[in-house]
Amino acid sequence: MNGVIASVDNYASLDVENYYGENFYTISSVGAAFVGSGDAQISVRNLELRNITGGASYGGGLLITTYTPIINGVTFSIDNCTLSNIVQYSDNACSLFTWFDKGSFTVNNCNIKNAKGSKSHLHYQNNESKVTFNNVNYDTVSSNFPISLINLDATNNNSFLHLNNVKISRVSSPGVIYRNNVSILKISNCVFENIHTCEKNKNCVNYEASAAIGITENDGKTYISNSKFNNVYGVFGYSLCSRSYTEISETIYQNCNLEYGIFSANDLSYNSIGEVSVRNSSFLNNNSTSGAVLFIKKGLLPDDLRTIRLEKCNFQNNHATKQGGIIYSISPFTSKNVIFSNCNFFNNTAKLGDISYAYDQASEPKFINIENIQSLRKLSNGFVTNPSYITLDEEYSTSDTIISYSGQQITNPIACKIYDDYNHLITFNYKILEDVFFYSVTPNDTYNVKLFGQIYGFCRNSSCPVSNIKVVGIPGKYQLNFNIITFGQYLYFDNSTAHMELEILDCEDNEQYKLGNLLYKYRESNNIKSCYKKTCDPSCKNQGECLGDNQCNCKGTKYIGNYCETLKLRERNVVFDNVIWIITNSLIFLSIVLIFSIYYYRENANIKGGGVDFLIIILIGTIFNYVYVLLLTSKRSKISCILMFSFYYIVSINIFSLNNNNNNNNNNNNNNNNNNNNNNNNNTFVVNNVVLYRDFH
Q1: Where is this region: Disordered (predicted)?
Q2: Among 70-79, 114-123, 482-491, 647-656, which is the least confidently predicted range?
Q3: β-bridge pairing 437-443 and 456-458
Q4: What tens digit of pLDDT does each residue of 301-328 get?
Q5: 449 pairs with which residues across the strands?
């Protein structure tokens, strides 16, 4: 492998002083300015490199890469260096600055500015490496893919890294600040600020939900002192394996925005926290969704949560948008393993639990030697737990026993209230669906008791009211259960059911039933009777009697129907219909005979004077009228009605035409007035008699 400036192999030595270079394009297999192998020794003083572009085909650093140690590995030291405008291209994990294998390395007084890469660490080291950084400043760093800035990747417990007076600032991309596998990492007098600013600006690329500050795996040990973490953004701060050890002292965590707190046991961090000791440190103006400092989900095993001790620490102006301004814990192991000793709490806030939010009091940390702990516990929102139990609302509910008849609406006002483990009344935000508590009302005996109506509802403000429920059941004593079925922003809790006594009275013992004002029959259920008042809606008309269930007795009235609103149809008079039928058929026969007679005697002066055609038309009209009368005596059908109205209008038109024709004959035939009048009178008599029958029928 060749370095752009130098390659030092085996046992060779190299001293470089006052070196300046720019516009390097390192396209070699390693892509480093210096490459060391074997047990070589390299010393560099006063180095300045600008505009470095390159990349390794596999792991390597742009400043130095070491590999293949013989016995002790490479010894490398650099003092007073400046690197700026660094761009690294590689599909593999590389380093923008240093990549060390076995050996001893010291980096003093260096500034690295404007460095970006594809998948780039700032520093990487492997087994049996001893590395010290003093007075090193990294400014404006980014990586296209999330990757740890400092990677202490040794697989054996034989490596060491000391960061002293190191500053890393303005890191735009996601990726944890440091990762320590099984080695020893010391961080002292360091500053980490404006880390993962892409999360603040909502423009991260290739985002990965992971720890933002540190990852300590396996048996790794991390010591942090006199340092500051300011404006760090991410999902949570530390991911600490249960076998790891972390010691923090004289350190400030300020303005950090971490969704699940600084120290976190969650699904993304093994659900564990190793042994942690924090002393004389401050947590200021940090923000989170839950547990701004400490977030502990429900651990699976007791060893998942080791001893966590925070001593003589100051917690001020920390905030959680949901639960736990300082601590969020739902683990039963928290009370045994997490201790706050001689700590100060000031102006910490959260929607639920300004200081602590826990599943119950048994899930809270221990608070010892804290002067104002009792006054803090008395605050309405200082210490809060998950809802713990549910009871009847005595202010709203008039009685804890409901007495009713089967089939009747419950009239007793009923409501329940929910409290946490500190007896704080839980209030509900029912305007946000995810926060709503839904409940159901059920009987303890679902075979003998049925509930109808609003058996499901939701809690609002500070109460869970029940209304519009009808009980149908066999007489006896039962129990109504008020069950929480969704828990909104809270977790499930065991005592989430309240009980009310229910007594169903026997309808047959009711005086109104004996008086006949109540019915006791199957209505809502096929196997359980209901006791209810006789009602008809709308009420019975025309003096009908209400039988209940909107049924009326119309007996003794002239009406029928559910509400006695329809007039009865009269029965036909068969004898009268038969008489009319005989007479009408006789008249039809007579009219036919008259037609033939008129035609036969058409030359007769009297007949001719009346008009043969006119007389025949009159007789045909009477036949139509007689047919209409016959149809009136027949059973109604669609065809008979059509024929009936057809003949009716034919007769009406015929009569109108005859009257007009008759008037014309009167004017033109004065000599035959008497005869025509007699004929008209006779015809009118016949038609009028038929019309009278028609109207009467």
Answers
A1: 664-683
A2: 647-656
A3: antiparallel
A4: 778 888 999 999 999 999 999 999 999 9
A5: 473
Q: How far apart are CA 445 and CA 418, in angstroms?
A: 25
Distance CA 338, CA 250 (A): 20
With tokens 């509910």, the residue in question is 397
Separation CA 536–CA 475 (nearest Å): 26
Nearest to 216 by CA among 179, 183, 186: 179
Query: What burial letters (b/e) apply to 168-185, b meaning 16+ CB within 10 Å?
Result: bbbbbbbbbbbbbbbbbb
Q: What is the pLDDT of residues 575-602, one digit of tens each?
A: 887 888 888 888 888 888 888 888 888 7
Task: Quote the tokens at residue 7.
Answer: 């390659």
Percent above pLDDT 90 for the chain = 47
- DSSP assignment of 177-227 equals SEEESSSEEEEES-EEEEESHHHHHT--SS----EEEEEE-TT-EEEEES-
Radius of gyration of the chain (CA): 52
- Does the structure show a pLDDT above 50 at 680? no
- What distance in Å separates the CA atoms of residue 401 and residue 28, rounded to the nearest whole number? 87
Indicate the CATH number for domain 518-567.
2.10.25
Please, what is the average pLDDT of the chain?
A: 86
Say which residues have a Cβ less than 8 Å from residue 629's Cβ, sequence separation at least 6: 580, 584, 690, 693, 694, 697
Tokens of 252: 């400030």
Domain ranges of the chain: 252-384, 389-509, 518-567, 579-657
Query: Which tokens is 305 given?
Result: 């949560």
- Higher pLDDT: 636 or 497? It is 497
More confident: 623 or 237: 237
**Distances from the Cα of 559 to the Cα of 54, 201, 330, 491, 539, angstroms:** 103, 81, 73, 64, 14
Q: Alpha-carbon distance 309 to 281, whole Å?
A: 12
Task: Say what percent of the chain tops pLDDT 70.
Answer: 91
What is the full DSSP assignment across 44-94?
EEEEEEEEEEE--SSS-BSSEEEE--SSS-EEEEEEEEEEEEEEE--SS-E
Q: Is 649 left (phi over 0), alpha (psi -120 to 50) or beta?
A: alpha
Q: Please give, one letter per residue, the 3-state secondary structure of 300-347.
A: CCHHHECCEEEECCEEECCEEEEECCCEEECCCCHHHHEEEECCEEEC
Q: Which two tokens stand for residue 439?
A: 């409940």
617 against 451, higher pLDDT:
451
Specify the CATH number for 389-509; select among 3.40.50.2300, 1.25.40.390, 2.60.15.10, 2.60.40.10. Answer: 2.60.40.10
- What local confidence, expressed as pLDDT, does residue 514 receive? 82
In this model, does residue 396 exceed pLDDT 80?
no
CA angle 322-324-328, nearest 5°? 110
Distance CA 223, CA 277 (A): 10
Lookup: tokens for 34: 């210096």
